[in-house]
Automatic annotation (TrEMBL):
GO terms for molecular function: DNA-binding transcription factor activity; transcription cis-regulatory region binding. Residues 16-30 have a biased composition (Polar residues). PANTHER family: TRANSCRIPTIONAL ACTIVATOR PROTEIN UGA3, ZN(2)-C6 FUNGAL-TYPE DOMAIN-CONTAINING PROTEIN. This is Uncharacterized protein.
Amino acid sequence: MAVDSAPGAGKPLTLTFISSSTPAETQSGKSLRWVDSAQRVRKERARKTKGRAASDSPTSSNPPDSASSDDATSPSSDDSASEFGGVVMPYRYGVTIHPALNEASNAQTRRLFSHFSEIIAGHMVVLDSFSFSNGYRDVILPLAQQDENLAQAVSVVSAFHLGQRDPRLQRIAEAGHQAIVQKLRRDSLQLSPEQLFNPYILATILVLLVGETITGADNYTYLLEMLNCLTQYPDWISMLPPSLKDFFLQQIKMFQLFGVPLANESKGLQVLTGPEAYLDFMAYPELPPHSEHFTNMETIRSAIFDACSIYRRRAESSLTDDESIHLVEQLRLKVLNLDSTTKGAHALVWTYFIAAAESILPEHREFFAGRLFITMIARLGLDPDNGKV
């Protein structure tokens, strides 16, 4: 590893990573390194003690723009701050690091990261507890502390969520969101495949898609297409460490399952022909069969399958009114005992939407529209009685 400049010297730290093994000719320079979470915490504590006065100085609420289109990917450094654990990352090239979150980050940025960890991350997985890994907390946030563009995406999504009660944050989030999307568009045209296909851009797209589910903005289809484009070249994903690869693949499939059918009917039919292949995000093998969570997860999974079947048959024009009413009633009975407080019930947003759209009987539409409203309100942190925070 060659170091071209020292941290804090006023210019980006440039590191060159060299493979410790003898790689294939087409993969020269690739290596893996483990960033230990305990080591990160010790370093972070030492920095906080040494530079506590500097920690409180005001800085921009958003990290500066990440590496330009001429830069390669921005991997982690042992000197970057991390409160959220360690990750294994593959490296191929000499790269420029722009630390995104450190002791100089202001209170606003740290507040937004904390909100993402404590609130948003929990809504993006089916079950969130100390017993299960949450990739948005354990993978996305450590990566976001190493890459400015991803860090800004995390801040923007948190600002959108908090913007329900603070219009100023809403305006800041909208501007930041557009800036990130524009940079992604620019990079998609200017970067080489080796630079474009990297975990940071993939993580940024996933985080922005999370934001789209909060705001209902109009970039969802574009981001979904970009996500699908990245998956057309799976080799680079397969080289990721298992923890990253598994999380990314689960989330890619989740957004494809719920997003593609709403964006493109013909492609949606292809996805929903075999929905079981897209439900890895619901896999919790640690759950004991006798637990309440296990039973609820089986019910949620079955309800999603039912909604997929309804979508397929409606798209294929093979559903009579009587059959439609019967299928919707079956689905209603299946989810009847799952309310908004049931762990994992927030995974039924798409299911409720499909059922409400398919409902012929007013009582069915009222039931599923009501479930959809309550679930979305809970995700936004609003009061279900008046729609306000």
